[in-house]
């Protein structure tokens, strides 16, 4: 339970900081979300008025908004060492000997911040998760939930928590620094789940 709330909470803290530090990205994500919610509302009200012409038409969550969340997860990398693993007995892997009982800490940055894969890994750029048709395209090296049979069993739950909370925040609130003009910096604290340095912001209702 601790793991689930801390990880999703930490990602949301970072997402809020990225919203404040990248207003153009946030504005584009919000525009898409607003369109998406209006389409849902239209469909629901036509269904309520007896129009059953396309009741099951799927309205997709917009790709750029999903890409924004992926980029927050890649850059924030809130489980940088995943979880400790161990081998039950001595193993050989690609010429390396792994002694029995060795504790292994994966380093997720080694893929999520690899220049050969991302080109400009230090830059916050959600577009990197969109293909030339504007559809979401996620490289296999995106591994915030790790890989293999022991990867995070709740990755879909976690992604849904991030989606619903960020849709709600972007649609209902304008975020502003506590002191006008002083956007909280993105300072990473040390820890197994690195949180940003404490900050205060204003949530201003939009409607
Ligand atoms: C953004 C949110 C989350 C991230 C980034 C995340 C990431 C991870 C990572 C990296 C691991 C370690 C995998 C490994 O090294 O093998 C893990 C394991 C695990 N996660 Fe998550 N997680 C998140 C949310 C959640 C939530 C919400 C739950 C529960 C509702 C959850 C339940 C678990 C459990 C039970 C394990 C241990 C699995 C095992 O030992 O086999 N996680 N998670």
UniProtKB/TrEMBL annotation:
GO molecular function, one term: heme binding
InterPro entries named in the record: Cyt_P450, Cyt_P450_E_grp-I, Cyt_P450_sf, Cytochrome_P450_fam2
Alphabetic keyword roster: Heme, Iron, Metal-binding
Gene Ontology annotations of biological process type: organic acid metabolic process; xenobiotic metabolic process
Swiss-Prot/TrEMBL cofactor(s): heme
SUPFAM superfamilies attached to this UniProt entry: Cytochrome P450
Domain of life per record: Eukaryota
Residues the entry annotates as binding heme: 152
GO cellular component terms, semicolon-separated: cytoplasm
Pfam families listed in its UniProt record: p450
Record has Heme as a keyword: yes
Family: Belongs to the cytochrome P450 family.
Name this polypeptide is given: Cytochrome P450
Organism listed in the record: Elysia chlorotica
């Amino acid at each position: 339970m601790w793991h689930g709330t801390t990880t999703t909470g930490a990602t949301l803290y970072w997402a809020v900081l990225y919203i404040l530090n990248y207003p153009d990205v946030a504005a584009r994500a919000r525009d898409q979300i607003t369109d998406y919610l209006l389409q849902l509302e239209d469909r629901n009200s036509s269904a309520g008025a007896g129009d059953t012409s396309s009741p099951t038409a799927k309205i997709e969550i917009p790709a750029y908004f999903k890409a924004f969340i992926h980029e927050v997860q890649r850059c924030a990398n809130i489980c940088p060492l995943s979880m400790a693993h161990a081998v039950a007995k001595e193993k050989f892997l690609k010429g390396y000997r792994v002694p029995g009982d060795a504790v292994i800490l994966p380093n997720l940055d080694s893929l999520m911040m690899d220049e050969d894969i991302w080109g400009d890994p230090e830059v916050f750029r959600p577009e990197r998760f969109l293909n030339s048709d504007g559809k979401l395209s996620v490289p296999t090296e995106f591994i915030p939930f790790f890989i293999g049979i022991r990867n995070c069993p709740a990755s879909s739950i976690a992604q849904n928590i991030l989606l619903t909370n960020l849709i709600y925040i972007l649609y209902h609130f304008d975020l502003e620094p506590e002191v006008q003009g002083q956007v909280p910096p993105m300072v990473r604290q040390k820890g197994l789940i690195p949180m940003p340095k404490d900050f205060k912001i204003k949530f201003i209702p939009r409607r």
